[in-house]
UniProtKB/TrEMBL annotation:
It comes from Pleuronectes platessa. Belongs to the SRP72 family. SUPFAM superfamilies: TPR-like. One of its GO terms (cellular component) is endoplasmic reticulum. This is Signal recognition particle subunit SRP72. GO terms for biological process: SRP-dependent cotranslational protein targeting to membrane. Keywords: Cytoplasm, Endoplasmic reticulum, Repeat, Ribonucleoprotein, Signal recognition particle, TPR repeat.
Amino acid sequence: MYLAEPELNPLYFRSSQNLTRAKMASGGVSVASLWTEVNRCGQNGDYTRALKALTKILQDNREDVTALQCKIVCLTQNGSFKEALNVMNTHTKMLGSEVVFEKAYCEYRLNRVENALKTIENAPEQTDKLKELYGQVLYRLERYNDCKSVYTDLIRKLPG
């Protein structure tokens, strides 16, 4: 079964109004051009290069929630699950529940299945993506009847 992975969502990126007012980041490169680089790299699947641009953005503004979210997704896409969890844990107050799926996904991939279960069960909103991961977690915990219920519910919601 295919398990949805975190991805760079276009909604993460700055609006064009914010980009036009962008200042210069460390090293003389505009923040706008760095976000353009992150966007381009994300679309091309070059998450290592996107991480380099995000590092520069975060050097300029350590509390940029959008940059932190993108960094977490890039680290996850590169298989750096522990590092992604470290970023989430370090910035818990800032990120809030914005990265619940990413956190549970990293825990699941690190075989911290009980932690992933707790993260999912404590999520303020149960999205379909989160429910799909919940089904995988339940399956790995050998809670097959619960897993079946989750997937049955997801299938009922499918169109057509």
